What we know:
The structure is a single chain. With 491 residues, this protein is of the alpha+beta class. It has 4 domains: 13-139, Schlafen, AAA domain (Methyltransferase, Cobalt-precorrin-4 Transmethylase, Domain 2, 2-Layer Sandwich); 156-221, no CATH class; 228-400, Heat Shock Protein 90 (2-Layer Sandwich); 411-489, Arc Repressor Mutant, subunit A. It is built from 16 helices and 22 strands. A hairpin with a 2-residue loop joins strand 18 and strand 19. Helix 9 runs antiparallel to helix 10 (292-305). The radius of gyration is 30 Å and the shape is flat. It starts with 12 loop residues before the first helix and ends in a 6-residue tail after the last strand. InterPro entries: RecG_C_sf, Schlafen_AlbA_2_dom, Schlafen_AlbA_2_dom_sf, WH-like_DNA-bd_sf, WH_DNA-bd_sf. It comes from Selenomonas ruminantium. Residues 21-139 form the Schlafen AlbA-2 domain.
Amino acid sequence: MAIQSHxxxxxNLEYMQNENENKYFDRKSxxxxxxxxxxLISAFANAxxxxxxxxxxxxxxxxxxxxxxGEERVNGLIAARKDCCKPMPQCDEEFLEIENxxxxxxxxxxxxxxxxxxxxxxxxxxxxxxxxxxxxxxxRGEDLINLEYAKSTRHFxxxxxxxxxxEDLDEELLREYRHRLDADESTDWQVxxxxxxxxxxxxxxxxxxAAVLLFARNIAKFYPNCRVRFLRYEGDSxxxxxxxxxxxxxxxxLPLLRIIDAARxxxxxxxxxxxxxxxxxxxxxxxxxxxxxxxLEGIVNAVTxxxxxxxxxxxxxxxxDDRLEVESPGRLPNIVTLENIKETRYSRNPRISRxxxxxxxxxxxxxxxxxxxxxxxxxxxxxxxxxxxxETLKLVLKNNxxxxxxxxxxxxxxxxxxxxxxxxxxxxxAILAYILNRGxxxxxxxxxYVGKSDNTVRTRLNNLMKRKLIKSKxxxxxxxxxxxxxxxVVE
Length: 491
């Protein structure tokens, strides 16, 4: 029977002994002192977690085992996370039975260190480490501050801005803010102070970064990275040099309370429109290439939740023939992951988020990512794609422009006619609309779409083919047979 971890089956004996150490795995001799494990435990916990295999020499990779050091030392190694780290990280220990280099029955000790979500794990001497590749790096200065931002133990929005004063803020925005809070009779200072946007340091009042980001009259003076840059490309890729294909480049530099409205107004002028068959009404209507909520929510989220501590980085909206991309500085915050992004919400900038909600973005902020998915599906478009690349979060909305252009050129959708449409039952209408909007579809896709059995769908398809509204591609016994628009809807 293969020797492998039950907690992480990927770690078998061959891997643990022969594989190079990496971001998630390290090996140590059982002779190591418990205190010397602390930096590695801290590093794994502050990164994405990892496993320390004890009992294999990290230099020679000899299978030494742990029995020779005695139970007291083994217990000390297990207790290192409690005795030598603060706060104590989550960690599971596991023993694996092996035969050591001397041919004797022995054990390996595996310490599975879990990722710390909202705490920074330090060693008992107040040092902080992070696992980067196969190295354990001590963090100091700006690197440490950035980790504190990432773990939400420090918020950039709450730190003071030593240069800005009340005179640098937009009076109109402040007046509207007071009104929304039903505090018209209060002064700007009173409202900002009550909401935590003013902090006293050495007996002097300072505005916080959040206050300036939200209300500054000239945002570029303080945060030149507070902008949305829109790039429109000709084609489906970005080219450089003599082949550069940028046909529109616009930067929007405004305080947060103005930048979304400005971005929405401008980007709306850049979006194209298409004719689409409405399943419910049986009519053709003009629709934008992306649902309004989908692309606007992507920008709202970027503005509200981006990492403003990353100087020099800005929000970038790139428009190609076949997709729209929204790139935001900073990875997903705290407990949000690519897997749970549809259901989980967490604000990196809670004060900014609250004010954005109070200024009327509550619908966008509350309905969230889940509706982006549903709206894209309603438009017969592919699911949105979120990804993390380095320190950037990207949202990609695909518009099926190639499919739509092909259908526009090959099929005259309105040749179906309302009279013919009304002769079809609701299921035939749904199937025909799906095929016309998608270009083609298999029987399995259609059965899943209408929620009916394969036989029921087959009957409707045969009826549509008799009317020459659709035609098939492939042998009728082929499970991958597809259906597309027929002669009755071709120009």
